[in-house]
Amino acid sequence: xxxxxxxxxxxxxxxxxxxxxxxxxxxxxxxxxxxxxxxxxxxxxxxxxxxxxxxxxxxxxxxxxxxxxxxxxxxxxxxxxxxxxxxxxxxxxxxxxxxxxxxxxxxxxxxxxxxxxxxxxxxxxxxxxxxxxxxxxxxxxxxxxxxxxxxxxxxxxxxxxxxxxxxxxxxxxxxxxxxxxxxxxxxxxxxxxxxxxxxxxxxxxxxxxxx
Amino acid sequence: xxxxxxxxxxxxxxxxxxxxxxxxxxxxxxxxxxxxxxxxxxxxxxxxxxxxxxxxxxxxxxxxxxxxxxxxxxxxxxxxxxxxxxxxxxxxxxxxxxxxxxxxxxxxxxxxxxxxxxxxxxxxxxxxxxxxxxxxxxxxxxxxxxxxxxxxxxxxxxxxxxxxxxxxxxxxxxxxxxxxxxxxxxxxxxxxxxxxxxxxxxxx
Lengths: 211, 204
Prior knowledge:
The complex is a heterodimer of chains A (211) and B (204). Chain A is α+β, with helices and mostly antiparallel strands. Helix content of chain A is 52%, strand content 22%. Chain A is rod-shaped. Chain B contains five helices and four strands. Chain B is rod-shaped. At the A-B interface, helix 1, helix 2, helix 4 and strand 4 of A face helix 1, helix 2, helix 3 and strand 1 of B.
């Protein structure tokens, strides 16, 4: 009887181990996986709630965003808008009393690793010291973004006006578009796709009067 | 009163064994039932965890739809950030030449004047040096050039460092003896404006 008791105890132990190993352990693993997924989902929910709150606040401030975008587009316009720049610089020279002698803008060039296109503008101006200062400060205050990269000033004596400063100002404007579309954009014709030459012997004959 | 059992003792032992075996069988059955209950209990836990996950996923999907509905707001914010970043790029090394010239006029020592001034922004080869300025000027005597160096090296002239005079030579203006000098200095990062941050409109 004692032996039966021992064997029964061992059997119970064995059965419990088998039960745990084959029935409960997989379920525990499944529960752990589901809890992990749940935690991830809870994390996603929190992130989404934060994002949605931010987006909601952006939506509420849509007017301010649109106004800001308008201002930023004014600073760096989509197109070169050289005509507007020339008008603005001319107006600035009138306001400051500077004599604009030459203005030489380059065509927009691509900037490395950026969407920006740069337009280098070289200007030769003449005026008194404070007129020149006014012109430089005016460039900074223009609606369009103008960066002055270099300046060379030399003074000369004028019998009528006294000291006159001649300045060469190298500026950079910015835009987002090329002056002309790039070749890839308009579609280049590969050698295999050379269009037929109209030599008068093809379709023209077909539609012309027959002999 | 003491019970009297007239049956042979073997009969009693057999009964005891049977009773014990029955108890053992009952215990085994109870044990198996407990194992079964445990199995179902764990199954219930799995179901609960799965239901929780499904409920959470449902919440997440609802929020995802809500977020997708706000895609135009995200686009608006992205456009704003992109364009603001372009302004920052464009004005990375922006120098306010007007302020430099104004400071120069303010700090120019007496008995000395500048005849030419050039300033350039250059690629940063020396850390902190963003450009170079060069001057040529006229003073009445050699000590005036020293005053020039002291004036430019003073802390009042932000953004200018490393002022140097490369030549000083005697000359004549009209009937007066003067000295002509040429000088250079480096533009440092202190000369860079924060115009980008001023120009980028703030949004809530």
